[in-house]
Design goal:
- The structure holds two protein chains of two kinds.
- Chain A is 24% helix and 18% strand.
- Chain A is an alpha+beta fold.
- Chain A starts with a strand and ends in a 5-residue tail after the last strand.
- By secondary structure, chain B is of the alpha/beta class.
- In chain B, 31% of the residues lie in helices and 18% in strands.
- In chain B, helix 4 packs across helix 8.
- The radius of gyration of chain B is 24 Å and the shape is globular.
- Classes of the chains: A alpha+beta, B alpha/beta.
Chain lengths: 352, 529
């Protein structure tokens, strides 16, 4: 028998073991999700990806139901949409989902789904919030009142970046995403890679440093490469009014595939430090530095170089380039030493 | 790296030697952990019990600086038990007989004694490595920062060639580069012996090519000095002018007292940086440059991938792009350079002059970068070097290597080994991370990591200020008692000026690369009161 199934009546191929969700996406049919996280074991927690499978007793979570040959799947039926809509309504009642005062307004999967299903009334009474917000650490705000317990953060922490810092804790109505011992992040195994924030579909996990600095629709996203280690992670710089307010990872990009570390995600604002050098400085005879114009500083450097070349030869000059700066800068510096000064005394910290 | 980061997750056998990846290359480490969870066999070889060991089937906890002995011992077992890849060795490599002879001098019992592990551990390691093909080897500065750094690297290559693992996806010899563009700085010829694209300065054809391109009558043919020799030259007057671009040598180089003496001796020191640092204190002129997000340009990562860097914010005050500063100095010395943007420099000069990068134009790296070699504009880039064992240089060359101990080993006066490295939250001398809000909260000061056994013996409690002293200096630093460190070892980083490990480290170097032995020197620890 060939590996095909019926997707909204159309015969569609699948690979054995594939879940309905993935097979449907391959077949061009998008199924909405909340808890689904690519690359991690499906949890089937949110029940948003429900589909109708002919012959099945109830609706099935497409993220965690494998396709079988000849299976007849409906993703767009009235029953499906009714169930999905009700689940969104239940999730909206599960916490404090008041978008106007939420940092994730405009960047929230739950909000998108509520809008898609044209939900204008909150049909169910809102569940009382039992856990206070935890933000003792410098980077991540954990607002449990906005957590829908989808478990994406847990999957990301345990199965993607494998830092194993958080898990599902407690039971039933008291369920909560916890660290070991339910301690604050900064007293736990957490290494602040921020992958949990990256995957959170609501405003439960947000970045403290970005708070209040810009709404999603106000920022421009500029792709760049991380300035820290040699892995070369691809980042989105979220820029508002010419200022970086947040950094996130580029999905499906080589080499990092949507991942960053603490330095890459949170170590961007050194560029705005008041300590930045803003003008050339020249040391006076008394040892103190004074501000100078570019012309004066560059003339001084060039003249002093020429003087030393004349008196001691080009090999009396040496330079080290910067392993943090762009290729084009290193190229220019070695060109200056070789072609202009006339020495190969050019190096950098390649060895350390 | 001969291979790519994309291989990490798919690998079936991974050997990590001298790499504290979860802290120094955290994202790369996530892929290794993914592989381990998916069933790959992970072997960690390190004097410390690094976090990656939690995921390893085997942790070979060797003594600091015993890598060559270990690898020779492993090769001894592979050859004696007939576990090596004979076909690969005979068709793809040369020099096997010499390396075999050398390996025979290192029976597991001898290697075990040098390494401080059991002979059976070495046998087990060899058999495991031979059991899965290909195996991927990754290393970092634990291999290179020794007086025998080059020999350590060649030992890694010997092992991987003997196992027939070089030239295949999920195999190879893979050094993880510590800095974002240390690969690129090498590729660009910021090295004393090569032009961009590793074309040797003592090769006349290469010089002719660069002379024509740069419109100069002559180019120096004698390879230049490496950084440690330049710095030494400052004290003897051999080097009069020293131009330091974006490096904080006063904290990063071994033996700070000596380094500062060198910098102090410079007749003319130019520093080009984004901040005042401990190094700029000695400068005669400081030039302010634009930083990471204030430039368009490219970085080249460990996997030889040329990635785009883009402008997102404006440089403060009068800070200028570095390429512009060099161009302006050249102009004042009578050379008018045409290229007037990073893109023009890359597209019109670098890719024209460096054949391995010729196909990597800016238009092609708008999204994902391309891995060199990519010699033409329709070349997709190269994920795996030496494909199928066909080495770029013809055949893979084995090298017989003898183990030598570190230059300074413990004695009665300084009975412990100090080894150094990086910690997760900070980067180098904290010029960047120290000024990024929040990071200091997570790691506010340096510690000296010691074992519980040594702490108990000395009556030191966790968090207590202790003295760590070497022949070069002394620091007062908080003790951190941790199971990561074995008895007899002290481990420190160089992120904080106060208690920087480089007050203590030994300025001795690998004779070929002049890489300093940051990983091993002798110290003593004492209670302060």
């Amino acid at each position: 028998m060939s590996n095909t199934f019926f997707l909204n009546g159309i015969e569609t191929p699948f690979t054995p073991g594939q879940m309905i969700l993935d097979a449907a996406r391959n077949g061009g049919v998008e199924i909405p999700t909340l808890c689904y996280l690519k690359g991690a074991t499906p949890t089937g927690a949110c029940r948003i990806c429900l589909v109708e499978v002919k012959g099945a007793r109830s609706l099935m979570a497409s993220c965690s139901t494998p396709v079988t040959t000849g299976m007849d799947v409906l993703t767009d039926s009235e029953l499906v949409h009714k169930a999905r809509k009700m689940n969104v309504e239940l999730l909206l009642a599960s916490g404090r989902h008041n978008c106007l005062v939420c940092e994730s307004n405009g960047d929230c999967r739950l909000q998108d789904l509520a809008y898609f299903y044209k939900i204008t009334n909150l049909r169910f009474p809102q569940k009382e919030n039992i856990y206070p917000t935890e933000d003792e650490n410098p980077f991540i705000v954990r607002d449990f009142s906005r957590c829908i317990l989808c478990g994406r953060c847990v999957q990301a922490c345990n199965e993607v970046v494998v830092n194993r810092a958080i898990t599902q804790g407690y039971r039933g109505a008291e369920s909560k995403i916890v660290t070991g011992g339910d301690n604050p992040y900064n007293e736990s195994e957490c290494v602040f890679c921020g992958q949990c924030v990256e995957v959170c579909p609501t405003g439960a996990l947000t970045e403290k440093k970005a708070k209040g600095l810009g709404r999603p629709w106000e920022v421009q996203k500029i792709r760049t490469t991380c300035p820290y280690c040699g892995v070369g992670c691809q980042q989105w710089l979220h820029v508002k009014d010419g200022k970086i307010i947040k950094v996130t990872a580029v999905e499906n990009a080589e080499p990092n595939q949507g991942r960053l570390c603490v330095k890459g995600r949170f170590g961007y604002d050194f560029i705005y430090s008041e300590d930045r050098l803003k003008t050339p400085l020249i040391r006076e005879a008394d040892g103190k530095f004074r501000e100078a114009s570019w012309d004066e500083a560059l003339d001084l450097v060039a003249n002093k170089f020429k003087e030393i070349i004349k008196s001691d030869g080009p090999d009396a000059l040496g330079g080290v380039s910067c392993a943090r700066s762009i290729n084009e800068d290193s190229y220019q510096m070695q060109k200056l030493f070789r072609a202009v000064i006339g020495t190969n005394n050019i190096d950098h910290c390649a060895r350390t | 790296m001969t291979n790519s980061f994309a291989d990490f997750k798919k690998a079936k056998m991974i050997m990590v030697i001298g790499s504290n990846m979860t802290e120094a290359h955290p994202v790369a480490a996530t892929f290794v952990k993914d592989a381990a969870l998916a069933g790959a066999e992970l072997i960690v070889i390190d004097p410390r019990r690094t976090d990656l060991v939690d995921f390893a089937r085997m942790h070979v906890q060797i003594k600091v600086g015993s890598d060559v002995a270990l690898i020779n011992g492993v090769m001894n077992v592979l050859i004696n038990e007939d576990l090596y890849d004979k076909n690969y060795v005979s068709t793809c490599t040369v020099g096997f007989e010499e390396v075999k002879k050398k390996a025979m001098e290192y029976p597991p019992e001898r290697a075990a004694e040098i390494c401080g592990v059991s002979a059976d551990t070495i046998r087990d390691l060899a058999r495991r490595l031979a059991s899965v093909k290909p195996a991927m080897l990754m290393y970092t500065l634990g291999i290179t920062e020794h007086i025998c750094g080059v020999n350590n690297v060649m030992s890694c290559a010997n092992l991987q060639m003997l196992l027939g693992n070089v030239g295949f996806e999920c195999g190879g010899v893979n050094p993880l580069r510590g800095q974002n563009n240390v690969q690129g700085a090498c590729d660009m010829g910021a090295l004393p012996n090569v032009f961009p694209g590793y074309q040797r300065v003592d090769n006349e054809t290469a010089r002719e090519k660069f002379k024509a391109a740069w419109k100069v009558k002559s180019l120096p043919e004698k390879p230049g000095l490496m950084m440690p020799t330049m710095m030494e030259g400052l004290t003897t007057g051999k080097i009069k002018a020293f131009y330091v671009f974006g490096e904080n040598l006063a904290n990063t180089e071994p033996d700070i007292h000596h380094v500062e003496h060198c910098l102090q001796s410079a007749e003319f020191l130019v520093c080009q940086d984004i901040f005042q640092t401990e190094t700029t204190r000695f400068a005669h002129v400081i030039l302010p440059s634009s930083a990471w997000s204030e430039n368009d340009g490219t970085f080249t990562s460990s996997e030889r991938r040329v990635n785009r860097v883009r402008t997102a914010s404006v440089a403060p005050g009068e800070a200028k792009p570095n390429w512009w500063i060099f161009k302006e100095i050249a102009k004042r010395m009578g050379h008018d350079w045409k290229s007037d943007s990073a893109r023009e420099i890359w597209d019109n000069e670098i890719t024209v002059l460096a054949p391995s990068m010729a196909g990597i134009k800016y238009t092609r790296i708008e999204n994902d970068g391309i891995q060199w070699p990519a010699p033409t504009e329709d070349h997709p880039g190269t994920c795996t070097l030496h494909k199928d064992g066909c080495f770029t240089c013809g055949q893979g060359v084995f090298k017989a290597i003898d183990w030598i101990p570190p230059a300074e080993v413990p004695d009665k006066e300084y009975p412990m080994v100090l080894s150094t490295g990086r910690r997760l939250y900070h980067y180098h001398t904290r010029t960047q991370t120290g000024r990024s809000q929040g990071i200091n909260d997570l790691l506010p000061e340096e510690t000296a990591d010691i074992s519980a056994a040594d702490a108990l013996e000395k009556g030191i409690v966790d968090g207590e200020k202790i003295s760590v002293k070497s022949r070069r200096g002394e620091v007062l630093v908080k003790a951190r008692v941790t199971r990561q460190v074995p008895k007899g070892l002290v481990w420190m980083a160089f992120h904080f000026r106060e208690a920087c490990a480089n007050w203590l480290t030994n300025p001795v170097y690998d004779p070929v690369t002049q890489t300093a032995e940051y990983k091993a020197c002798a110290v003593r620890i004492d209670k302060v009161n």
